[in-house]
Amino acid sequence: MYSNSDDQANKPLLTGTRLRSYAFALLTRKEYAKAELIEKLSLYAQDRDEVLALVEELSERQYQSDQRVAEMVLSSQIRKGKGPNRIKQALKHKQLDSNLILEDIQDVDWFEQAYQLKVKKFGTQIEKDPKQKAKQIRFLQYRGFDMNVIMKAISRTTEEE
Predict the structure, then answer these.
(1) Which of 36, 42, 55, 127 is the most exposed place for a label (fewest CB within 10 A)?
(2) What are the structural domain ranges in the chain?
(3) What is the DSSP string of the chain?
(4) Model pTM score
């Protein structure tokens, strides 16, 4: 029985059209950030410079787009109930510049997002108990919302809707 590293050592490293085909195969399954794609291709490529040139070409021809990846991260994180700080963290993790979607982030009504999340988890009543209030604050902070948004969201009454 071969171990995974033995298989890796016996496989020929990719160059030229085989490397290009592998890059296209990756991109047809999933959007990759430039840094992710370089890392992924470098595992199988013979020459890192060839990988860098190929990824740059794919980016210029719009087969790979950091902008698209950033927009996908934004929409997916909003769906998951994450705030702007957690979204910026996710972008940094993918080695993407948050300036790519700066306008989109500013267009989101974070107060409404935080309020809806608070209602879903804790209901509409405004908490008077300091421990329960702190629990709501911690929950929304963990989700990546700013403190001023959190304070408005947890003290909003149903009449304000």
Answers:
(1) 42
(2) 14-63, 65-105, 108-153
(3) ---HHHHHHHSPPB-HHHHHHHHHHHHHH----HHHHHHHHHTTBS-HHHHHHHHHHHHHTTSS-HHHHHHHHHHHHHHTT--HHHHHHHHHHTT--GGGGHHHHHHS-HHHHHHHHHHHHH-SSPP-SHHHHHHHHHHHHHTT--HHHHHHHHT--GGG-
(4) 0.76
